TrEMBL record, chains A, B, C:
Name of the protein in question: Beta-galactosidase
Catalytic activity: Hydrolysis of terminal non-reducing beta-D-galactose residues in beta-D-galactosides
Enzyme Commission number(s): 3.2.1.23
Keyword Metal-binding appears in the UniProt entry: yes
Domain Glycoside hydrolase family 42 N-terminal, first and last residues per copy: 5-388
Provenance organism: Rhizobium lusitanum
Residues annotated as binding substrate: R102, N140, W320
């Protein structure tokens, strides 16, 4: 199903009926509204204006459109900030981050929580049972614009409170953080300050806890809104629109108060933001990398109940990346179908029409400012027709390969990279890509989630292995490959006394006796009976009695296997990983095919989709199949869909 | 005529007479003094000391030197800042920018305006009618050291006041800025704050207006000083010394209170500051780029009455660029004659003698600290002798080619580059250079200025097309070429409802339906019947019924022409532009010649000058000419001047 | 002798006896303790706890270990900072630099001085006469984490006081600083503020004096502690552990209150921090550059009495560089012996055991967290056995070559680089390396130190030549080569009236008439009868009647010699320098040999050491020698030691 983000408050009210009619006509079924309209809902303190929103909802509903209503907390009006300046977040420099854009609040502010309760209550009470309102989006893109960490007095107080609950006594805090080092001990929780602005590096344990506290308080903030909505709006779903490649809070935790996850898919902008090599950025500049969207579909599908939406889908050039090209012809259609292939229920485009004003005036919509369809808008109409033809899609099945994503891994490797280019996103991407280049489907799972039924489990980097994770690893019969730095930290960000991989040593009998981060230009040869290549970025010296799968030049082990568990103590690239994964997939009897770098496959029930991100046609190498869309030659930026004949 | 900047307060008074004598002897006629001497004019609050300045002026006058007196407002003394700390400008971080260099004031400060009125009044009253004083320089290098934008309380108040006059009501402001977006609406002008320090990007409309306000208040500040001087100093000229490649305020507006413009020409420093590719920086490291000075001569000549001065001419190595080489032998002479060729009345060197103290101790003068002539000083003496020989130069005539420079274009493309390397200066430079490589003279004109009489008008980028500009475009018979992003904004920095190029559509029937900024490494082929090449940086998708002059690979138009107007929706490089310009110049019957990249020509009346910026000789390819200076072989870093025989 | 840094407070007390026993067993003789233990010595204001430290000392002493006790001022506890927040240093942005790491004090704080006196007094009084305590380390790594310059109110007051003593009157200050420039004159010392936060560049003379003031106040602070210790702890040595490549205060001055210098040798981290080209960083990534440690040995040996220690020697990977590889096998041993070859009395490793907590949890020790020896620990045990075999080493003799290091040169070239890449450390390194590649020993000496007995003296850059320096240059019969910018400044950072090289003109009759800094990519050919090459970075135009040793392309001089003094006015690279040095060494009859870039020699009395920093073996090219360690084929990362047979 298709949806769209719409801002009736942006447009002349006379246009609304025609907009609604056109939406319906091109195949739109869902409309998200309201999430930035606080200044229109409540133009002055306590003076509400619902008339316009009532009318907008009626007009949309009259066309049969289903409405997702957003809570407007991502953009408090100026009068509120002037009344309560303490709601503003505070930067690392100790200065308030001012009004003028969005997300100008810290959830640590008591006043802000009170304002949130008030506005969510009135919106939910007014529209919660409206028949056209089918669901809710809480806030907008939590954490966007680097707003997870805030350093003001209320944040500090919240942190101290969080610590006192976690550690109970300052003695315990001192011990777990190792505060005896550099005389950092405190005599009371009141002495603790956020780990920022110090003469040099602060304690990584403090930073990890500060991040956890901030992540937790965002999750609580989301739950606070969800509870109010559930009270007033029974039988409607609650979701939030997450951002891709965004690790600054724990999505698994925050999602606990949601019914399902949505995410905002901007494939081209990420080409600039993700740390790709420059040549790759040029290569994929107007298509995006073929694993960027797919990875996030696989992530958000798995978090809650195998349901997910694209709440905002890029329909054309945007405004916020370093460069903002138009998507290649066909890519808006391709991205949409790719989302469906990975299980999306709804793909909702951002936005109906390009607003010629303000910060996003250069961000395309399905319509141009002159109310004509944009190139992306024309592709969407085509998608809608194809959906009609295809009918309901079969349910998504569990994949045979799982990859573990851990938000704390992301925090830990940024708090203590140890080598400047140890980038968790890059590592995760390389492992995911290596598997996907073998034509297999992949589920993204949380640490501790059941791994039953998988054939191969990939754990690129999981520094903290808690009891639940360990139990899940022990319980599965899948082959598990653990990457570098897995098991390298205790829950309080210390090196395990028994050395890394810590608790994992009960599965693989190995100790990491020394660690080297490797600067650009340095690589170490690795050889093995089944695969060979080089280590870059990171290389661990392993102490083990196990036979080595891969060895360094001096003959010492870089990778070892015990029963169904392998530990790989080096950063290796995608081609090298692919050799290794292929070997295990073959052993586990998983069907696979080596794909060109621009082709990806994805199954949904009996359907197989093939997506071509490249500029050259690709011929489907399978026989005896029945095409539902496309044919055996998949053109550039095109896709095909078939069932086995 | 030659001039020099002199600081009697820097030197032992016993040296003054000898300095004055030597100036006269080597051919200096004008001396600029006084613009940094406030602490000597008024050592303590209200205690003035004019004796030393009286004597200095008498000594200079006694040698027949004409004096340009500077108002000392660019460097207020410490006692003043201590008394009135609110005069200090405030940075983006909200902190006052402190005493210790220069330009430490914001013109928004009421106290500063009062101090300015006081000191200018007393200086002007004392010296305004002195027979040796022939003119005034107001302040020094307005905007230098990034002082146009200031963010303190008085700046904010000034901005609010400016807005209330422009928009009359907060409703109108909200509408024109599109403040409904992200709930940015205000209920009163009092709610407005400068667009800085926000969580993320602020409204570009707010930023453009803040820049306009700051530019306007600088222009008012200049006019305030000018009015005081005119009262006390009749029949003296008033000028200001602008900086090259400096776009942070509107020079056209500020110049309205001046009699003519001066500018400070530092050709070598700009090689490092201008965004040239590294290879070009190496190429021109000790000569400067052959279009850098010429462009500014053509700009400042045109602003007021076809008169301009070089107030500060680089005479040797300076101290403030990333690297500071000595000019190649001959370049000080070449730069001087090039200024005259472009119409300069006076070339005044900075400075008489290198001061061995303080910030500019490594900045050369015509003399070294040991009172011996510097290498540059020796070249100046040669120039003076050549001036004697040449006598009066003929008046400068209007060129056949004009290029439109717009300060708001510079602000808009920095506020919203949309692609990180969309640099207005680079674009302007490429268009100017392309024309100049064809041997033609170019006038730099303001938007809205009459274009009558030109054969070719170049508009590299003019986002806002107001009524005056449009009228000027309509009124000329010249062929006009509009570059990318022209007409892409309304006066309030919105996308025109009818799409770009907005009002220009009445001249060229085309709509920009989609825009791509192109990252480094991406280029798109463009082909046409008369020229071919690639687009980089920027490519617009054009919707038009006009035949295409240039097309993208998919056959869509990149450039179209209607009657005498062409719209080029892509960023193309200099060689490609030159092909296009040559075609139109030929059609218009303008004489041209393709020049090597290091040679430039310039006419002044019947005289033609050829300047050789390269290391190899160049043979003049014209016959039947009579050399006034030089001969048909123009040596490296040399020039020649001839009349048609 | 070997030592180790130990933190009993980090470990379970039950481990102490075993730790002490193991130390003794592997050959450790000295243990440094206590320098970060303030929060354990004084857990709350005025409540001291010495029991644990008493016991630790007894346990170490019982194994015959000699103790170096550190004063704990590098890490004040939180309660102290909460009581006296004014002790915190203040950054360039005017904000206090907070608690959370170390070095969070400014020595300008009166309260801090009072707290320092108190804690040092009690520690020194308690342990000063303990028989096992043989020496003291004051504080830890002065200046680390950029803590030399602080900008708070007490720093400003201290600066004003320092200035009033130096200049006596504001008039004198104005004159010496050239404050008339830009009206920077002050009427009283009270008007002076630290040179920071101004609109643009502040007066370099003010910055130099501010740096001197800060350096002096650190030296005074060290002397304050030393005086207290001497009172309570007779016959014990006092040292401080300096950092390599750290120029932010004057080590010569600070060392005046010490008995000898120690330094902290982290060869690998410096590969990333020193401005080496990237290819060199890759080349030396796990060995370090062969001149990095050697230079510092030669420096710290010379400062006080030809004695020095390595207080902290890197034993494995560290945590604080951009990348942190493990040292190549053998390098920990090589570095240790290299230190001894250069005269170190004691090499003390940092640290006994890797603490799995806090900021340095990834920093290796001789033991791993699991109490097993690390790879570095195993090499140290080998070194200890070799020391036994070798017995006492002969005394170090004066070298035949000296190189002058000047801390003010470092400050001046950073305050006023004039070309962005004029890096004093790079220049010094190139000159030292060029000499060392010729197989000769080098002493690093302070300006003004006697140069008697040397054959060749290298002065890469000495901007200020004071009377003592000049006298030392005049008194020596060595050939002296002065590099660019030598003599280019007066003591108050002005250009000498007689032009550079100022006072040096009495030795070499030459004037620097013009200076060019040269951007990357620009090089100027230099030719001479004995050596040829190119100038990069910097080229001076020389005015002289002396014959030229090297000339630019235009025939002007780049290097001249008068009697035993040469002035070289250009930056030239190591290979070029080596040709020149070789020529003078040959003339002076100094034995030399051209070494590969990875081999270095060092004599200690009759012993010659050869160190191989490269991956290929090297065959000793001398005959008739008797190997003490190793043999004629020196393996990769190995060394040999011989006496002439």
């Amino acid at each position: 199903m298709l949806g769209v983000c719409y801002y009736p408050e942006h447009w002349n009210e006379e246009w609304w009926p025609e907009d609604a009619r056109q939406m319906r006509e091109i195949g739109i079924r869902y409309v998200r509204i309201g999430e930035f309209a606080w200044s229109r809902m409540e133009p002055e303190q306590g003076r509400y204006d619902w008339d316009w929103l009532d009318r907008a909802i009626e007009i949309l509903a009259a066309e049969g459109l289903k409405i997702v209503l957003g809570t407007p907390t991502a953009a408090a009006p100026k009068w509120l900030v002037d009344l309560y300046p303490d709601v503003l977040p505070v930067g690392e420099d100790g200065k308030a981050r001012l009004f003028g854009s969005r997300r100008h609040y810290t959830p640590a502010s008591e006043q802000w929580l009170s304002e949130t309760r008030r506005i969510v209550e009135v919106v939910a009470a007014r529209y919660g049972r409206h028949p056209a309102v089918v669901g809710w989006q809480i806030d907008n893109e939590f954490g966007g614009d680097d707003t997870v960490l805030s350093y003001g007095p209320e944040d500090a107080a919240g942190f101290r409170n969080w610590l006192s609950q976690r550690y109970q006594s300052p003695q315990r805090l001192n011990e777990d953080w190792g505060n005896v080092f550099w005389s950092m001990e405190v005599n009371s929780f009141d002495e603790v300050i956020p780990p920022v602005g110090a003469v040099s590096e602060t304690n990584p344990a403090a930073r990890l806890d500060f991040w956890r506290y901030a992540s937790d308080s965002l999750a609580e903030y989301c739950a606070l809104q969800a509870a109010i909505i559930r009270k007033h709006s029974p039988d409607r779903f609650i979701t939030h629109n997450f951002m891709g490649f965004f690790h600054n809070f724990d999505h698994f935790k925050l999602a606990e108060s949601l019914d399902f996850c949505s995410w905002d898919s901007y494939p081209l902008g990420k080409v600039e933001h993700f740390p790709l090599p420059e040549a790759e950025r040029v290569r994929w500049y107007n298509t995006s990398h073929p694993d960027f969207s797919a990875f996030h579909h696989d992530l958000y599908r798995g978090i809650r109940n195998d349901r997910f939406w694209i709440m905002e889908q890029q329909p054309g050039p945007v405004n916020w990346a370093h460069w903002n090209p138009a998507p290649a012809n066909g890519m808006v259609r391709l991205w949409t179908w790719e989302a469906f292939a990975h299980g999306a229920e709804v793909v909702s485009y951002f936005r109906w029409r390009q607003l010629p004003y303000a910060q996003e005036q250069m961000h395309a919509g399905l319509q141009r400012p002159d109310r004509q369809p944009s190139p992306g808008g024309l592709e969407v109409a085509q998608v809608a027709r194809e959906i009609e033809v295809m009918g309901d899609l079969p349910p998504v099945e569990r994949a045979e390969v799982a990859i573990v994503l851990d938000y704390e891994a992301s925090w830990i490797t940024r708090i203590q990279p140890q080598g400047d280019d140890f980038n968790y996103k890059l590592l995760l991407h390389a492992w995911y890509e290596a598997a996907r280049r073998l034509g297999v489907d992949v589920d993204v799972v949380a640490p501790g989630q059941s791994l039953a039924g998988y054939k191969l489990v990939l754990v690129p980097c999981l520094p903290i292995i808690d009891d639940r994770s360990l139990a899940a690893f022990k319980a599965t019969t899948a082959h598990i490959i653990f990457g570098p730095r897995t098991g390298s930290k205790t829950t309080s960000h210390a090196v395990p006394w028994e050395l890394p991989p810590g608790a994992l040593q009960s599965l693989v009998s190995v100790k990491v006796s020394e660690v080297s981060s490797l600067r650009p230009g340095v690589s170490l040869s690795l050889t093995g009976s089944k695969a060979s290549g080089v280590a870059t970025h990171w290389a661990e010296r392993l102490e083990t009695d196990l036979p080595a799968d891969l060895t360094y030049e001096d003959g010492s082990a870089a990778m070892v296997t015990q029963r169904n568990c392998s530990y790989l103590g080096a950063w290796i690239d995608g081609d090298f990983l692919r050799q290794i994964f292929a070997d295990y997939l073959k052993a586990e009897g998983v069907a696979m095919i080596e794909l060109p770098d621009h082709i990806r496959l994805r199954k949904r029930g009996a359907l197989t989709f093939a997506f071509n991100y490249g500029p050259m046609p690709w011929t489907v190498p399978f026989g005896g199949i029945l095409f539902q869309i496309g044919n055996e030659v998949v053109g550039p930026h095109d896709f095909a869909c078939w069932v086995d004949g």
